[in-house]
User: What shape does this take?
Amino acid sequence: MDCEKVREHLESCEECRLHVAVEARLRTLPVLDPPRGLASRIMRSLPRSVPLGREILRLAAAAAILLGLVGAVFATGLDRHQAAVEARSQGSQILQSMVTTFNPLRSEMPWKR
Amino acid sequence: MTPEVPRDILLQARAGDRAAFRAVVEATQKLAFNIAWRLTWNASDAEDAAQEIYLRLFRNFEQYDPAQPFLPWFRRLATNCVLNWKEKQRPAGELPESLAAPREPLRDPNARLQKAIRELPPEYQACITLKYLEDLGINEIAQSLQVPPGTVKTWLFRARELLMQKLKPYVETLL
Assistant: This one.
């Protein structure tokens, strides 16, 4: 079909004229340049931190380390507490044995009466 | 129009390198801005939407599979992001453009065309934008929107039909 026939058809056919017009308008819509400084504004608008997924992983790792440390401190504290209880009971046992040892002697010291 | 982003830059940006990310922004900002503009038809909105695109890219870069081409993934992210951004900007209770009451008639043929495109369903707008902005083929659009090529053909056909219906009264001014 040559150009002349196409033109004749378009003049007589509103449907095809509309189709061509819409298609031509769509193809010639302007392509805009982005505003100046857009890349800088975009970079400034980004969060300072790393992406959230990685941040969560990092926080989880930090929390695990912290928990470990707290656990270790707590366990050491318990040990100390137990040691203290044991030392106290041993001390009181020693004291008791001293009292039982020295009390008869005391009774034999008349100047103390 | 179609940008080229070196693979090593993409991989560095994906790993969190800000300088590489900036290089990706600079290479793709024209595409992103024009996708945003053709879905909003407003330069200020397009800039806000473009910022939203890169914020989403920054947060979701790890989801990009480096074994696949970057641009279809980026086009999809950009298109979805702008359509969601538009939906969020619409005040609660306000009707979508396609259902809103008509305003005063437009004289500029391009403004008429833009209004007609704005009134299309979002998936048709996305198809028309990708088709005519970069002159993409059916398969490339399908890859970008993650739908079968047959669906893209149908959407494009219906989008053109709707545009022709809306613009029929103005055919002489369009030529």
The first helix of chain A runs from residue 3 to 12. The two ends of chain A are 142 Å apart (CA to CA).
